[in-house]
Design brief:
11 helices; mainly alpha; two-stranded antiparallel sheet; single chain
């Protein structure tokens, strides 16, 4: 096979609407979720030969995926201006040669967030899953909050493990992150130094914002995604007959009461 044909075949998997491409992207999403669960689970366990072998396997797959994305990209240099590209690079290094520290692997969580923001993946999930359509905002709010918690847990652990006897493992770092985020502030674990205080401030400010965003998504009335043919407004009440922006009559598909 020529290089051009390999590139076309790879692009059809990453961007095409064929059944093979759809299944491939769903498999990538499942792989990312499994990777996140692996990172979280092994962070509480001592390192051993099995986890180190799995680290290498995950790293090889991530490297292959990263290389394939560069191969099909129409603007390769522009890829390196994106934050998600550099988090992938850090994750690859942390899996294949843990020079960035164990917590670097937590940045892999951001990749799941990026996949959920992929336009084609979103369109497919909206088409295939009624649950996703009805709970899209809640799913994004939960994902954003989870990513923030585990990335901040990694930062707390990496910056405090050698200087703060109260942070002995990831469980301690996770416990502190959650108590700071919820502003519970039991006071049994605190971060030392100016850096520790600034990390605590970031957790409280951004964490509370994400937490309230999740509460808003849970408590606000459910809206459906349907583009108004006149003004283009995307979100409407599920029982809306007229567009609130322009008054145009809507014809929102309704699956009926359950």
């Amino acid at each position: 096979m020529s290089f051009a044909s390999i590139r076309r075949s790879t692009r059809s998997l990453y961007e095409g609407a064929t059944p093979e491409g759809v299944r491939f992207r769903y498999a990538l999403l499942v792989f990312d979720i499994v990777t996140v669960l692996f990172i979280i689970a092994t962070s509480f366990l001592p390192s051993n030969e099995i986890t180190e072998t799995l680290d290498v396997l995950f790293g090889v797959v991530i490297l292959a995926d990263f290389s394939a994305r560069l191969l099909v990209s129409r603007h390769r240099l522009r890829e390196f201006t994106r934050f998600s590209t550099w988090t992938d690079i850090v994750a690859i290094i942390s899996f294949l040669a843990p020079l960035a520290g164990e917590a670097g692997g937590f940045l892999r969580v951001l990749r799941t967030l990026r996949l959920l923001r992929d336009y084609q993946m979103l369109a497919r999930l909206r088409e295939d899953s009624n649950f996703f359509r009805r709970n899209e905002e809640v799913i994004f709010a939960v994902t954003n909050l989870a990513v923030f918690i585990f990335v901040m847990t990694a930062i707390v652990y990496e910056t405090q493990k050698f200087r703060n006897p109260q942070i002995a493992n990831y469980a301690d770092a996770l416990y502190f992150t959650v108590t700071a985020l919820t502003t519970t502030g039991f006071g049994d674990i605190t971060l030392s130094g100016t850096t520790g205080r600034m990390i605590t401030v970031v957790i409280m400010i951004f964490g509370v914002t994400l937490f309230f965003n999740l509460a808003r998504a849970l408590l606000t009335p459910h809206k459906v995604r349907f583009s108004c043919p006149t003004c283009g407004l995307q979100r409407h009440d599920s029982d809306a007959v007229h567009c609130k922006a322009c008054g145009n009559v809507l014809n929102i598909p309704d699956e009926g009461l359950t």
